[in-house]
Amino acid sequence: MIQPVAIYVLWLREMKKFVRAKSRLVGAISMPVFMLVFLGLGFRRVAIPGLPESVSYLQYIVPGIIGMTLLFTGASVGMSVLMDRQFGFLKEVMVTPASRISIALGRISGGATTSIIQALMMLFISVFMGFRFPVLGDFLLSVLVMLLISVIFISISLILSSMMKDVHGFNALTNLVVFPLFLLSGALFPVSNLPVGIRIFSYLDPLTYGVDALRNLMIGYSDFPLYVNIGILLTLSCVLIGISSYSFRKSKSV
Amino acid sequence: MSSIQLNGLTKKFGNLTAVDNVTLSVGNGELFGLLGPNGAGKTTIINMLTTLLLPTSGSAKIEGYDIEKEADNVRRNIGVIFQEPSLDIHLTGKENLEFHAMMYGMSSNERKKRIIEVLEVVGLLEKADIFVENYSGGMKRRLEIARGLIHHPKVLFLDEPTLGLDAQTRRKIWEYIKDLNKKYALSIVLTTHYMEEADYLCDRIAIMDHGKIVSLDTPANLKNHLEGDIISLEISGKSIEFIDALEKNPEIKTVKNNENSLSITIIDGEKKIPELFLLAQNIGIEIISVNLRKPSLEDVFIQLTGSGIREEAGNKYSHFHAGTRRRLMK
């Protein structure tokens, strides 16, 4: 049973905290900004094997860095659940009659909104560096893709947080998961350059399809057709929302 | 009909039985106390009754709803004030209450009206728009009580409501709790390890130790249980003869000897003091000081649970929690 009011109030709380904590925003986008600036400029003249000459490296990595922003901010949502647990607020949420799927959806929608805002900021910053802004239709579709990417990684983060109890352990675990996901996804270089044994893992990485879909929409270059990418992302999103609300029901809030 | 009914409720954490086969019932509008040393299982009972923990065995009903099978209905009917602070300190007092009211699906008009009402009850109306970060410990506690009341619960759970608060704030919170119980005929379950709190507030008290209920009665009856007053005597000289003489007296229940002081349990203590002096004079013992007191709940408590200080079986987070708590309660 989905309760829109409960989802809305959890989303609203996230928005209020996001607007009030400006330092959090600066901290969150500084890393992708550095990656974009230094990799984009540093490898500007390098011919990357597997890339057609018409695609410059900057054009190539902007969708990758946007994917990275979505991955990293999504992964931190589980962290905020654990912080709520340590500050006792999770108990307050869990004793209310709001259905557990509404609680999971509230978390996901709040996290997805902040992730997408940060991803769009990255997109606008890259325009100043010479990235061509996509046409309106493609732009709107890429926001949809961003939403799907966020939902996937926030759900994974929520599932992990329900299994972990303390913040430090969770941090270590997310680093262990997040960096391989990022590096395998083809965000920085074409997946086809990886040896076959490793490339298999790339194809198991949801971010591969997310970044590929963004590339398709933003620079018109991709490995897979758009409908394949979106199909995979959409299916995964639905399955993971289901698992994350189940894990919320089973998780211990005390 | 009783408001809360526990039937053989049990919770095990690995080898540790935190709550051991507890059966009791709390009537409608009753103010019921769970009293016990640290680690006795009070909070675990509250966590099970508020649907945050599943029992290992046994069952419990609140307002007729099973805590396992009808958890949503239970949640709708209860208000909870947790032992650890559970406010979002980055939101204002009012925002915390709004969050809560919306989670219970209250309409916008109802919400506005009710939030002002509960803020008035706890006297925080003027501070409603301040961030909770800047609240004092007592204000936070009062805000949590207000929050627990918004959705018109039938049963209110208060887990150590005055822990870590100063004497004045504690008094105030006691008055709120009494008021709520009387005005709204709210059934209230509170846990505490402060004797005077349980004594002052509760209609009935269950004394818990090692997950079990060791005694359950009204505060007055629990105290009567000890039968008699406690007289402490400080004496000089050889006491053996004196103690022998005291022990022969059928009116004296117990005599405890501790170097030069004696502790005697006796009925109608006030009237017996002259007799004691006479007896001492006859044996040739000097009484240096005398002290008489009525038994407190604490005496009952110590008699039932033993006097040793309990080392709380904390987990690796308890240190962190303690730190958080100190910070939040500043």
Query: Main β-sheet of chain B, in a few words?
Result: 6 strands, mixed
User: What fraction, in percent, of the residue positions of chain B are helical?
Assistant: 25-40%
Run of helices and strands of chain A = HHHHHHHHHH
Helix content of chain A: over 70%
CATH class of the largest domain in chain B: Alpha Beta
Rg over C-alpha atoms of chain B, rounded to the nearest angstrom: 24 Å
CATH superfamily grouping of the largest domain in chain B: P-loop containing nucleotide triphosphate hydrolases
Mean pLDDT metric of chain A: 91
Average of the residue pLDDT scores of chain B: 85
The coarse silhouette of chain B is: elongated
List the uncertain runs of chain A: none
Largest sheet of chain A: none
Query: Structural class, from secondary structure content of chain B?
Result: alpha/beta
Domains of chain B, number? 2
Strand content of chain A is under 5%
Query: Which regions of chain B are unreliable across 5 or more consecutive residues at pLDDT < 50?
Result: 311-318
Strand content of chain B: 25-35%
Brief description of this entry?
The complex is a heterodimer of chains A (254) and B (330). With 254 residues, chain A is an all-alpha fold.
Topology:
The complex is a heterodimer of chains A (254) and B (330).
Chain A: H1 4-20, H2 22-42, H3 57-86, H4 89-94, H5 100-128, H6 136-163, H7 167-184, H8 196-204, H9 206-219, H10 226-250
Chain B: E1 2-13, E2 16-27, E3 31-35, H1 42-49, E4 57-62, E5 65-66, H2 71-77, E6 78-81, H3 93-103, H4 108-121, H5 137-149, E7 155-159, H6 167-183, E8 187-192, H7 195-201, E9 204-209, E10 212-217, H8 219-224, E11 229-236, H9 240-248, E12 252-258, E13 261-266, H10 269-283, E14 286-293, H11 297-305, H12 318-328
Parallel strand pairs in B: 3-8, 3-9, 6-7, 7-8
Antiparallel strand pairs in B: 1-2, 1-4, 4-5, 9-10, 11-13, 11-14, 12-13
